[in-house]
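Per your request, structure below.
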């Protein structure tokens, strides 16, 4: 009996790590789906962070100003309507405590219009907090938090360069 109990406990301990895996997500079901066209091929992601890393950090030959110059076509699913819209024209709720079913953290719901974003935020502000921002502000805020000191130097440089480029764009 004791051996059976020990074996059962060992099996449980072996299974637990495999159950605690990276958060899985199906981009087609995700309300925060993002599609980036890289080298002529559409690549779907569950959230902006994964799309950002694939398009602007890990992509061979990527230049930080690709984002600022809107070189890569990026589409995002509207959180309310489910229709895809141009990422660069959208509005986002950032720094919120929103929890999205079938989504992947960090949750950044996107909206195709400022009115839709404000309406959703005002209705849910007491629960979720955060704020409504446009593409430039969302990108700048994300870049600030993207590469903490423990991250790889190349990622930190990319985030700093994006911040610089966005700052230059504002001055124009």
């Amino acid at each position: 009996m004791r051996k059976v109990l020990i074996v059962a406990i060992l099996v449980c301990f072996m299974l637990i790590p495999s159950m605690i895996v990276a958060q899985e997500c199906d981009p087609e079901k995700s309300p925060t789906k993002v599609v980036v066209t890289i080298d002529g091929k559409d690549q779907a992601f569950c959230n902006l962070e994964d799309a950002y890393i694939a398009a602007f950090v890990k992509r061979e030959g990527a230049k930080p100003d690709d984002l600022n110059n809107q070189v890569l076509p990026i589409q995002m699913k509207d959180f309310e309507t489910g229709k895809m819209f141009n990422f660069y024209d959208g509005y986002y709720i950032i720094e919120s405590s929103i929890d999205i079913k079938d989504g992947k953290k960090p949750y950044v719901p996107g909206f195709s219009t400022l009115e839709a974003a404000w309406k959703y935020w005002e209705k849910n502000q007491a629960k979720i907090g955060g704020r409504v921002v446009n593409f430039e502000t969302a990108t700048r805020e994300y870049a600030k938090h993207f590469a903490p000191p423990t991250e790889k130097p190349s990622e930190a440089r990319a985030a700093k360069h994006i911040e610089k480029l966005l700052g230059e764009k504002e001055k124009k």
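The chain has one domain: 23-171.

Regards,
D.
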